[in-house]
Each structure stands twice: as C-alpha cells, then as structure tokens.
Specification:
By secondary structure, the protein is α/β, with parallel strands linked by helices. It is built from 13 helices and 11 strands. The structure holds pseudouridine-5'-monophosphate and manganese (II) ion.
Length: 302
C-alpha cells in the first residue's frame, strides 16, 4: 500500500468495520493549541463510542498516514501553522522532502481512498471564495469531491466563501449535496443560508443507500453530506456575517492570499468573537462525528 495504515485501521478494513477518516489541517491550521488536540482526540473518542474506528490522516516524514498515533496528533497540533498545509498540488514536494504535512479535505480524501476508507468527517470544506470572479480562488477541495470516491460529512461551508457559487461548482463537478434532516444548506456557524441542498435525507440509512447507489454504478467522485450545527450551539446569522465581513476587509488590507486565506479568517473570526466561533466550530465537529459514524455503520450493513 502507498500509505501507512495503523494496526487498528488495518483490522477494521479487514473486518469491514465502519471507518471514519479525519483531516489534520483542521488541527494544525483550523484551531489554536491546545483546543485543536483536545478536539481531535475527543472526535476520535466520539467515533469509537458510536461503534466506529477513527483514522486521522496526515503526512509524517513524507509518508501518507491513515490513522495517526496520539503522539503524532499532538505534534500536528503543537507545531500548528509551521506544518505545511498540504493540498493535492503540494503532495509530491512533501513526499520528496520527506517532511510533515497537514492534509486538507482534498488530500485527506486522496489518502483515505487509497486506504479504502469511504467516509470522512470534518467541520467545513473549502469552496469558491468571495471575489473568485477576479481572483480565481476556488478550493481544490471541490475538484477532489468531483473525482475521488469518498463521502464527506461536514456542517456546510462558511460564509467566508461565496456559497451560491460553491453550489454551482459542485453541481458542475457532479457532486450530490445532501442535507441531513434539512432542505437548506447549512452555513457552518449557522443552520441556515437561504440556499437549498439537492436532496434532504431523513436518516443515516437514506445516506448509506445513496452512497451505495453511486458506488454500485461505478460513478467516480465524492458525496457531500451537510449536517447543520446543533441549535443550541448555532450563532446569530446577523452577528457572524458582520464578523466575517470585518475579517475579510482586514485580510484584503493585509494582502493575504491563496492558501493563507482560510487559516487567517478562522483565527480572526475566533479573535473577534472572543472564542465563541471556536466553541461553535468544536461542537459542530462533534455532531458531525456522531452522524458520520451512524451513516458509516448503516453502509457497512449493506
Ligand atoms: N474550513 C474550516 N476549517 C478548516 C478548513 C476549512 O472550517 O480547517 C481547512 C480544510 O482543511 C480545507 C481547507 O480543506 O481549509 C481549504 O483550504 P483552501 O481554501 O486553501 O483550499
Ligand atoms: Mn485557494
């Protein structure tokens, strides 16, 4: 195998147990230390409590790893932004240099599919950035969803992105966008966006049936399952949108571009909201881990 798989993951693959991939950029670039490591470890324990096997994905000394050890997760979190954020285009250089790397949604999908892991839980995906009509800044996550056979469970995409354009690109790439018990695309910190998903699913079984149908047809590409943040942790849309606008103005003033955008905005939003956005972010990932594992469990019965 081209990737390193830990013994627990190997056993789960053989026994066809529900496996859930997790990304490492959310640890190194998405949250501050030590909350990032605490969250990563808690997410793994939630997956186990629901009867699944977690596999946090990352690059260690130039090797793609599906199932980082707790020590490796700690290292990802501690080194934080000094670890390179690795998307599809960065992979060859990281492998050649034999360095560490944090995997984005795109790269986590690539390594998970190499290991044979179908499901991947995260917070939010990358998408079409606001102003993309001039900057062309469209996350490689969308391209990957169009071609790699992994189902991604997330809380939608943040309003730091242009959500209508993000849905358009997903449609072009042939990615089904499902809403877990909702008709509306959730916007990460909030349950609503004013936009519709392609299909509302009632339960985990519905989701598993759709994944199975796509795989049985041999239709390549991902499936996006969007799961709204629980009501009690959701933020006021007016407030959060104002904060996001403020953070984007500062990003533009500072001339921050490309792969630095998302980490900068996440940190800025957490700063302005005095940690409330971070608390919401952590809770929605926990919720996605529970729902994602239930879906993987249903799928493993099919
Ligand atoms: N959204 C979040 N937290 C994150 C990211 C997105 O709420 O940590 C990360 C993910 O790893 C995602 C990446 O794949 O940012 C997208 O970055 P870019 O737009 O540069 O492709
Ligand atoms: Mn980009």
């Amino acid at each position: 195998m081209k990737v390193r798989v830990n013994p627990e993951v190997e056993k789960a693959l053989q026994e066809k147990k529900p496996l859930i991939a997790l990304e490492s950029t959310i640890i190194s670039h998405g949250m501050p230390y030590p909350q990032n490591v605490e969250t990563a470890m808690k997410v793994e324990s939630i997956i186990r409590a629901h009867g699944g096997v977690p596999a946090t994905v990352g690059l260690v000394d130039g090797v793609g790893v599906v199932g980082l050890t707790p020590e490796e997760i700690e290292e990802m979190g501690k080194r934080g932004m000094s670890i390179p954020k690795v998307s599809r285009r960065d992979l060859p250089m990281i492998l050649a240099e034999k360095s560490w790397g944090a995997t984005t949604v795109a790269t986590t999908m690539i390594l998970a599919s190499m290991a044979g892991v179908e499901f991947f839980v995260t917070g939010g995906i990358g998408g079409v950035h606001r102003g993309a009509e001039t900057t062309f800044d469209v996350s490689a996550d969308l391209e990957e969803l169009g071609r790699t056979n992994v189902t991604v469970i997330c809380a939608g995409a943040k309003a730091i992105l242009d959500l209508p354009k993000t849905l358009e690109v997903l449609e072009t790439k042939g990615v089904p966008v499902l809403g877990y018990q909702t008709e509306e695309l959730p916007a990460f910190y909030t349950r609503t966006s004013g936009l519709k998903v392609d299909y509302a699913i009632k339960n985990a079984q519905d989701a598993a049936n759709i994944v199975k149908a796509k795989r049985d047809l041999g239709l390549n590409g991902g499936i996006l399952i969007t799961n709204p943040i629980p009501e009690e942790y959701s933020m006021d849309p007016k407030e959060i949108n104002k904060v996001i606008d403020e953070a984007i103005v500062e990003m533009d003033e500072k001339g921050i571009k490309g792969k630095q955008c998302t980490p900068f905005l996440l940190a800025k939003i957490a700063e302005i909201t005095e940690g409330r956005s971070l608390a919401a972010n952590i809770q929605l990932v926990f919720n996605n881990a529970a729902v994602g594992t239930e879906i993987a469990k249903e799928y493993s019965k099919l």
